[in-house]
Amino acid sequence: MRNLFIVSIFLGLFVACENAPKTNGFVTSIEGSSWQMGSQASVDLVTDLDQYWGVDYDQMRTFFADSVYGRFAEGETFETVDEFLDIVKEQMQSSPGDQNWTLEWAFCIDLDPSSGGDWVNAAFTVDASGDKPKRHINEWYFVKEGKIHRFNQSRRLLD
After folding, report:
1. Secondary structure of the chain in the HEC alphabet?
2. Exposure of 31 by Cβ count < 10 A (0-12 exposed, 13-18 middle, 19+ buried)?
3. For the chain, what is the radius of gyration of the CA atoms?
4. What is the distance between the terminal CA atoms of the chain, rounded to a whole angstrom?
5. Nearest CA among 21, 23, 29, 43 for reference residue 143
6. Of 1, 24, 55, 111, which one has the fewest beta carbons inside 10 Å?
């Protein structure tokens, strides 16, 4: 009887300590999908990039795959890291001194664990300046093997 009690406790602890990934949500284009939390390394990559944005373009380049593609909030599209950096340079030059962005959050999801890569969502509040109102910028980065492969940005006016 005592052995049965000890085995029961051991099995109870083993089952209670199971650390299965937490999942929720779905993606209709991926059969049987369920989102999982992504990696802190992907979040760190995006927050580290923020330190160099518009300041050191050579350093920015190291964060991206050569074939990165995506779209900015104003509709500009790109299909290479060079095109991406050209757009960032143009944006920075068109509003010098007006770059008061505050990183509000960043989190990461693994949309499809079978294919690898994480989606990082980062959100910024940008103060009003010149002719531009206060706004919220939302960015999605697809990170795989330590590089950003896709970037999408949207904007919502706050004033």
Report:
1. CHHHHHHHHHHHHHHHCCCCCCEECCCCCCCCCCEEECCHHHHHHHHHHHHHCCCCHHHHHCCEEEEEEEECCCCCEECCHHHHHHHHHHHHHHCCCCCCEEEEEEEEEECCCCCCCEEEEEEEEECCECCECCEEEEEEEEEECCEEEEEEEEEEECC
2. exposed
3. 21
4. 71
5. 43
6. 1
Residue tagged 């757009």 (tokens): 87
Task: Fill in the amino acid letter for 130.
Answer: G
Structure confidence at residue 9 as a pLDDT band (50, 70, 90): low
Q: Is the pTM of this model over 0.85?
A: no
Digit-coded pLDDT (tens) for 72-117? 999 999 999 999 999 999 998 887 666 788 999 999 999 888 788 9
Instruction: Look up residue 137 and give its two tokens.
Output: 């910028």
Amino acid at residue number 59: Q
Of 114, 112, 119, the closest CA to residue 34 belongs to 112
Sole residue written with tokens 């896709």? 150
Q: Which amino acid is at 15?
A: V
Query: What CATH topology corresponds to 37-157?
Result: Nuclear Transport Factor 2; Chain: A, (3.10.450)
